[in-house]
């Protein structure tokens, strides 16, 4: 396909890629991450890149931490098999009323040996349709948050407090969270992450069995078993309140700092 002047028109995939790249750049800016050296007036790009001005903040370049422990293949396979058992049990679950309204159960997905785990609230419409956690708009923001940490989604494990979508995306009810808690606890025990990021007040309260506002839980290291837990804003909230992305980025850097250094480093 080409424009009338003969230049090639970007195809749909390229347009999608450009839109994704633009969203990513906008998020990085909102997180307060400088990706490109800022040009000082009159300075060449090469000089600016080689010698950052003292006026500019040092770009945050998170070194990729080790997110998967050195497991034998068998151990990783065993964990995957155990996670599949949990997913199969969740798929057959009718312990609460959400079972009747779901299209699919959304158990969560990712690396069975992940050192970093994200826990959200409950599946939304897109998750209910696909059976995958965090794939809608909030999920795409979560992907960019993970990438800003120097990681990929495949490096981490992503799950929710609830495995079924509440109608109209309402908050999980106490009995629903209680009925689903066993699945999440088993996933945590199987993956055995070093660090858990609780996305939003609901996940933080459920994981830590605390009450109170998210603000009181942020900026601290909590523990759940041997895992360290950090609470931050839910990506859906960040979509509505982009000004809070900078604070969320501080939480994510805090979580990164708790991960053990890369093996052998
Ligand atoms: N919000 C969540 O908490 N979880 C998802 O999987 C999607 C949106």
Q: Would you write up a description of this structure?
A:
Strands 1-3-2-4-6-5 form a six-stranded mixed beta sheet, sandwiched between helices. The chain has helices at 12-31, 45-50, 73-91, 98-101, 125-130, 137-148, 174-191, 201-208, 235-240, 245-258, and strands spanning 109-110, 116-120, 157-160, 195-199, 222-224, 227-232. The longest helix is centred in the N-terminal third of the chain and has 20 residues, at 12-31. It has 265 residues and is of the alpha/beta class. It is 43% helix and 9% strand. Residues 1-5 and 36-62 have low confidence and may be disordered. The chain has one domain (10-56, 73-258): Uracil-DNA Glycosylase, subunit E (3-Layer(aba) Sandwich). It has ten helices and six strands; from the N terminus they run H-H-H-H-E-E-H-H-E-H-E-H-E-E-H-H. Bound molecules: uracil. Uracil (URA) binds at residues 120-124, 127, 133-134, 136, 138-139, 160, 236.
Helices, strands, pairings?
Layout: H1 12-31, H2 45-50, H3 73-91, H4 98-101, E1 109-110, E2 116-120, H5 125-130, H6 137-148, E3 157-160, H7 174-191, E4 195-199, H8 201-208, E5 222-224, E6 227-232, H9 235-240, H10 245-258
Parallel strand pairs: 2-3, 2-4, 4-6
Antiparallel strand pairs: 1-3, 5-6
This protein binds uracil.
Uracil binds next to helix 6.
Could you provide a short overview of the structure?
This protein has 265 residues and is of the alpha/beta class.
């Amino acid at each position: 396909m080409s424009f009338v002047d003969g230049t090639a028109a970007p195809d749909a995939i390229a347009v999608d890629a450009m839109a994704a790249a633009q969203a990513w750049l906008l998020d990085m800016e909102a997180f307060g991450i400088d990706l490109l050296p800022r040009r000082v007036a009159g300075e060449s790009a090469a000089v600016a890149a080689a010698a950052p001005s003292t006026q500019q903040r040092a770009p945050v370049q998170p070194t990729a931490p080790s997110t998967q422990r050195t497991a034998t293949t068998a151990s990783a396979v065993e964990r995957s098999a155990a996670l599949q058992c949990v997913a199969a049990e969740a798929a057959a679950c009718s312990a609460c009323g959400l079972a009747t309204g779901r299209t699919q159960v959304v158990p969560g997905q990712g690396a069975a040996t992940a050192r970093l785990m994200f826990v959200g609230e409950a599946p939304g419409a897109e998750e209910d349709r696909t059976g995958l956690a965090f794939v809608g708009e909030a999920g795409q923001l979560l992907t960019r948050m993970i990438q800003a940490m120097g990681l990929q989604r495949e490096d981490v494990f992503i799950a929710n407090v609830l495995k079924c979508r509440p109608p109209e995306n309402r908050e999980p009810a106490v009995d629903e969270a209680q009925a689903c808690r066993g699945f999440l606890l088993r996933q945590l025990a199987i993956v055995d992450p070093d660090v858990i990021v609780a996305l939003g007040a609901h996940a933080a309260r459920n994981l830590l069995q605390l009450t109170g506002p998210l603000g009181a839980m942020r900026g601290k290291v909590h523990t759940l078993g041997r895992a360290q837990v950090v609470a931050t804003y839910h990506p859906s909230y960040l979509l509505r309140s982009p000004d809070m992305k900078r604070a969320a980025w501080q939480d994510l850097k805090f979580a990164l700092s708790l991960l053990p250094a890369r093996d052998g480093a």
